[in-house]
Design brief:
- This protein has 83 residues and is mostly helical.
- It has one domain.
- The chain is 67% helix and 0% strand.
Length: 83
């Protein structure tokens, strides 16, 4: 059984939130260990910034996709074909 778009969004959001939490924790411990900002710390900061923009957009996408779609895979849903 293939997951629904809402299920995929929920799973993706949860995984990205877990990743963001992990990176934030790593950055906190890196600050305690280092006086100089390392390339890894900079990369973590950039990833966290990207995730802080991406996660709310994915959360908003939940409300755009119809929850109960009768369309078969590969077919547009009714909301997508209404013009």
């Amino acid at each position: 059984m293939t997951p629904t778009p809402h299920t995929l969004l929920d799973i993706s959001i949860a995984q990205l939130q877990t990743l963001a939490s992990f990176l934030a924790e790593e950055m906190g411990s890196a600050r305690e260990r280092e006086n100089i900002v390392s390339p890894e710390t900079r990369a973590c900061r950039e990833i966290l910034l990207t995730l802080s923009v991406l996660i709310p957009k994915l959360q908003a996408a939940r409300y755009v996709i119809p929850r109960d779609s009768s369309a078969q895979p590969g077919e547009p849903c009714e909301a997508c074909t209404e013009g």
